[in-house]
Every structure is written in structure tokens, then in C-alpha cells.
Amino acid sequence: TDRYAVIGNPIAQTKSPKLHAAFARQFGHDMTYEAILGPIGGFAEAVRAFRAAGGKGMNVTVPFKVEALELADRLTERARLAQAVNTLKFDEDGSILGENTDGVGLVRDIQGRVGVALRAKRVLLLGAGGAARGALLPLLEEQPSRLVIANRTPAKAEALRARVAAYGNVAAGGFADFAGEQFDVVINATSASLSGEDVPLPVGSYAAGSLAYDLVYGKGNTPFMSHALENGAAQVADGLGMLVAQAAEAFYLWRGVRPDVTPVIDMLRAA
Ligand code: ATR
């Protein structure tokens, strides 16, 4: 039996064991996936202990994604640009590969489940924290015609832009700097809603037929989604699909097969 786990602190809230158990059932794989409460200051030791006990890979969540980046012997380009690792793979030769599947999960969810192609689209990314940083390279790989990073603190948006400027047409600034410009896809990667606040998006940002995507999810529409529908977005989606898609990407990295995310998203919605 192959062993996997998610490590974080806190960890009780994690849906990952449920997701990976559902994926394993799709293929009849003999594996276990557990949740580990990582001690603050003891992350690397906990990872080594799990590996020594036969672990094949781990997901990493808050607050250990940067420590996981430092622990990995090799990084994918995505993880390097995200400056965060959410998936570790323990290779046969003893080395640890660090990957970040969050951004690619977002892109797969937008283009797959939601059904909106990103190529040649005008994309507005709201926020410049860890979540936005992780999304940047996967978004640019789809070759949008333009990607704008808008953030409450413009200097942080500019710093992100500078990191990925070589990968496409990227602009950065504050929310008001892009007033009057229209976008086909608007992605909320701020944590504003977690504190009950609205993102001060300029009026008129939504082009005809546009999609508003919130990385956050909850029961029903998030405040960002409701605001988007009132302001001209044609379609909205929340981040539950991204959650399942990033897990599916980790499963693929470990197991070499791609789970069907649709029944698993349905299962979570029903729960
Ligand atoms: P995460 O890992 O979720 O991205 P983070 O790194 O703390 O979390 O980043 C939070 C993001 O949400 C930042 O872009 C932050 O803007 P600042 O860089 O100006 O701090 C943004 N954010 C948080 N609260 C916000 C609010 N009330 N309005 C607008 N943006 C907000």
C-alpha cells in the first residue's frame, strides 16, 4: 500500500483525504492518504519521518508552503515562480521534487469545468499575495493577449509583474489604474472577502460574455461573484473546482493517471 498525506497547521479542516480517496477509487489504486498536523518549527522532521515510514508523497498547506520549497531538492518552474510548494514527491533515488499545482488547478478548472479558453483573452488578476503569485505562470502559459495584475498595494503588483514579464504581456498597478479597461476573465485572488470586505474593482471592467472567478468558495455565490453579476459579468465560478483540480494534478504527479474531477466536485457540493 502506497502512503500519502497532507501536512499543515491547522489541519482538521482539510478536504484532501476525501478527495484523494475518491480519486484512488476511480482507478482501484491501493493507497492511503492521511492528514498530519505539522508541528510549528518541526516541518522538515515531520516530512522525513513520514518518508521513512514509507511515504511516497505529500501535499503541503498553510503555513508550510515556503518551508516545503526550501526542503525540496528539485523544483518545477511553476513552484520556483510561485515561491511555494504544495506537493512533494519522494523519488526512488532519495531526492524530493517540489511542485505547485494550485495555479495549474485554477487554469484547468477555468478551461475544463467552466469551459472558458484563456488564449487571446484579456485577463485581470486581483491581488498580489501568495495565491496570485501561484496563478501567474500557469495563466501566462495559456497565452492570454494581456494579463493585468491589480492590487490594493500597487508596489506588490509591480514586483510580481517584474518576475513574470518575460512570459507575456503583463501590466500591473492599483485597482483604479485600469478603470475604463475591459476584461474577458476577472480572477479574485485577494483575501478581501475573508475579512468581509469588497474588492474595489472599477465599474465597467467586465466585457460582454466575461467570466468572474473567485478563488474562494462557500455556500452559494461569494460576495465577489454577486458583485460581478451585478456589474456585467456573464458567468461566475467559485474556487471549489480549483481545489479539486489542484488535488487531481498532485494525484497525477504521483500516480501517472488523471482523475475525473466532475463527480468529486459534485460530491463536495452535496456534502
Ligand atoms: P494569499 O496567500 O491568500 O494570497 P496574502 O499573501 O496575505 O494571502 O495576500 C492577500 C492578498 O489580498 C493581497 O493581494 C492583499 O492586498 P495587499 O497586498 O494590498 O495587502 C489582498 N487583500 C487583502 N485584504 C484586502 C482588501 N480588504 N481589499 C483589497 N485587497 C485585499
From TrEMBL:
InterPro entries: Aminoacid_DH-like_N_sf, NAD(P)-bd_dom_sf, SDH_C, Shikimate_DH, Shikimate_DH-bd_N, Shikimate_DH_fam, Shikm_DH/Glu-tRNA_Rdtase
Gene Ontology MF term list: shikimate 3-dehydrogenase (NADP+) activity
A family per Pfam: Shikimate_dh_N
Residues annotated for NADP(+) binding in this entry: E77, G127, A128, G129, G130, A131, N151, R152, T153, P154, A155, K156, L215, G239
Alphabetized UniProt keyword annotations: Amino-acid biosynthesis, Aromatic amino acid biosynthesis, NADP, Oxidoreductase
Catalysed reactions, semicolon-separated: shikimate + NADP(+) = 3-dehydroshikimate + NADPH + H(+)
Active site annotation, chain numbering: K65
Ligand binding (shikimate): T14, K15, S16, T61, N86, D102, Y217, Q246
Pathway(s): Metabolic intermediate biosynthesis; chorismate biosynthesis; chorismate from D-erythrose 4-phosphate and phosphoenolpyruvate: step 4/7
Domain Quinate/shikimate 5-dehydrogenase/glutamyl-tRNA reductase: 117-193
Domain SDH C-terminal residues, every copy: 239-265
EC number: 1.1.1.25
Domain Shikimate dehydrogenase substrate binding N-terminal: 6-88
Family (UniProt): Belongs to the shikimate dehydrogenase family.
Subunit structure and binding partners: Homodimer.
Biological function: Involved in the biosynthesis of the chorismate, which leads to the biosynthesis of aromatic amino acids. Catalyzes the reversible NADPH linked reduction of 3-dehydroshikimate (DHSA) to yield shikimate (SA).
This protein's name: Shikimate dehydrogenase (NADP(+))
Organism per entry: Aromatoleum diolicum
Phylogenetic classification of the source organism: Bacteria, Pseudomonadati, Pseudomonadota, Betaproteobacteria, Rhodocyclales
Name of the gene this protein is made from: aroE
